[in-house]
Amino acid sequence: MNRTTTALLAALEAVLVVAIGVGIALVPLTVLWATQFGLAIDWVVFWRAAVDVWLLGNGVDLTVQLDPAVVTTLGLPGSEAPFTLTIALLGYGLLAVLLGRRTGARAAETPYRWVGAGAAIACYGLLATVLSLTAGTDAVRPSLPQGILLPTAVYAAGVLSGVLSGAFRGQAAGALVRRYRTLPSVARGIAATALRGGTAAAAAIVAVSAVAVFVLILSNYATVIGLYETVQSGLTGGIVLTLLELALIPNLVVWAAAWLVGPGIAVGVGTSVSPVGTALGSVPGLPILGVLPHGTLAFGFLGLLVPVLIGFLAAAVTRQRQARADMAPPTVPQQLVTGLATGIVAGILLGLLAWWSGGAMGPGRLVEVGPDPLLVGLLTAIEVGVAAGAGLLTPHPFQRSRATPKNEPAAKR
Asked: Where is the chain membrane-spanning (predicted)?
């Protein structure tokens, strides 16, 4: 495979990723255009709506100016003035990262990995620019600089992670490995254990949160269906609404993680959903939000034990890789520093996810939806860091003593 072929194949994959992202909203909207509106409305309206949803999913801000008739129907305070939607539908971003990682991994298998990666990212950026230019209307207008940069950055993160992952399996990362090996052994041990433990702790908290969201959806199924009936969106409108909610599921998972850590989330200014209790007013008309807890939970504080237990177990497991036969056991200060660093890594990761998952979901009080990223990151660092320090200092029950060599009986014989 030559350089040109690698670039063309990578660019084609970028085109397919954009087509999938836009098509998720465009296909049901086109069906809605044909069935509910009888092809009477210009299809470009639905095209722009699909592009707007795709841009919003990639973190692009949308400035909305509602029609006076819609303002009267909604009755939301502040909806008569232009407002900005800033909440990202993380499902779109997650899809772009995963598909971009696949593109990068394919490029890494060729001798021209950076040519393929560059071609894919450049093509994606060009398409994002074109889509941003075609999406603006008087009612909804995306931020053009963000429309060019943010979708491209999200996809580029996936592509680069795929390329680097493939490079680490080959010889391209030899210089980085040699540079890492020049660090003092103590620094290498702390950095490796903290990165593994912090990443594992953050991933485990998110995994537990995903299970919690799944259980909440099952247990509140009747409530969600009742809200669908209240909306009365029809079959096709219900499909569109469901796809929008599926794109919002990753946000709910991150919000559940923020709830487990302690700060919880806000669904409007002056509202709170946390282990201490829930204080909600009117919420956006999305049926999936019917899974939010109500009132005070009798055992809600037990959720705070989840990040603590995960931090302890992550440190206890990763500590086994830290110990080597040719190295002196780490000292107590080194273990404490490693535990603190583990908490910092987990806090940074969950703080970034919390920042990406929240934003403005409407006018008035809905300008504040989601968790406080600084508070989520800080409390995660404290909870996981303290628990990780305890996990690193706890002796492993199956750890053998090094005082007696294994070949001692043979020596006596």
From this structure: 7-34, 81-100, 112-136, 148-168, 189-218, 238-261, 298-316, 336-355, 375-393
